[in-house]
Amino acid sequence: MNTPVIVEALRTPMGRGRADGALSGVHPVELLAQTLRALLTRTGIDPGTVDDVICGCVSQVGEQSGTPGRMAWLASGYPEHVPSTTIDRKCGSSQQAVHFAAQGIMAGAYDVAIACGVESMSRIPMGTSKLGQDSAGPGMAARYAPGLVPQGISAEIIAARWGLTRDAMDRYSAESHARAARARAAGSFRREICAVATPTGMVEEDETIRENTTVERLASLKPAFENDAMKARFPQIDWSVTAGNASQITDGASAMLIMSEQTAMRLGLRPRARFVAFDVRGDSPVDMLTAPIPATRKVLEKARMQVGAIDHFEINEAFASVPLAWQRELGADAARLNPRGGAIALGHPLGASGVRLMTTMLHALEDTGGRYGLQSMCEAGGMANATIIERLA
């Protein structure tokens, strides 16, 4: 079996997903194209050697409807014979793209693959693909009567179930911004970011980090999902999820070059990490955001590892209650959990987030000398991917 290795990983700066956001003037295909060009320029490989471009994208409508990985590849001027496909596993789409790329190499189907992701939430708002339609159908409605709930309600259910207070979630969120701000000030994101050309100039740094965020400011925000119908259905909820302790709506792209170890050696490229184990799990679609817990347990079991052996955890901060509940269950060291901040500070460009998290984790392991990193992301419908990588000296 071939051994897949990570050779390069990078991401764009994170832009606020609104009309005046730093990246809002860039078509999502061009945003990804600039990322792919930076990836191949850094490694110097022949684009014609790439076997497949596997792209995560959630809202596959409008400007993101035309197989964005394929469009971005061709927009970059790269060879037409290289194909692409688009993955939608919701928030974990590009993490799943990583799994498929690595697994394809393990199986011998690929020698070289790119896993990437893109989401322009300013140009294609979240939920656009549903167009107000029922996406569950009568069978789901009957099984989960009185019905599924929005993710924000799921975040509230988790907070209530694990006894997470508003103050605890606000403190976690303020710390996410503080960690990201410290990382940016120290230049820790510099290697992983590729600058993006926009109609108004170059964007080189994350726009989403609020270094002056305080617990007191967060405490002043109103709950975002409280309403009479849900209050009647879930009387146990204290209504504490706000815009401040949830991930930011964001524009961004990310890309990772994965190849067999043998191919990397032949091309004179340095393998930076290998894959130790993969998992993907499902859990309750009503609780929805809890699947990282069983996915983490299973991926650790597959790797025959204990949680204490992991040097860096990336658990996507869809809402503060998600990593906090995960930490309570797994007993992970808080200092190792999202040590450079997470989606609350850096933003969550849906289809791009999986590779974004892994890119940050890889660079952090290299900077700190850590050996193992574990990543998991909650996904709509009650799913989660989990991955363990090992940094290579």
TrEMBL record:
**Domain of life (superkingdom):** Bacteria
Q: Which UniProt keywords apply?
A: Acyltransferase, Transferase
A Pfam short name? Thiolase_C
Thiolase N-terminal domain segment(s) = 5-262
Q: Which family does it belong to?
A: Belongs to the thiolase-like superfamily. Thiolase family.
**PROSITE patterns in the cross-refs:** THIOLASE_2
Matches recorded under InterPro entries: Thiolase (IPR002155), Thiolase-like (IPR016039), Thiolase_C (IPR020617), Thiolase_CS (IPR020613), Thiolase_N (IPR020616)
Domain named Thiolase C-terminal is located at 270-391
Protein name, UniProt field: Thiolase family protein
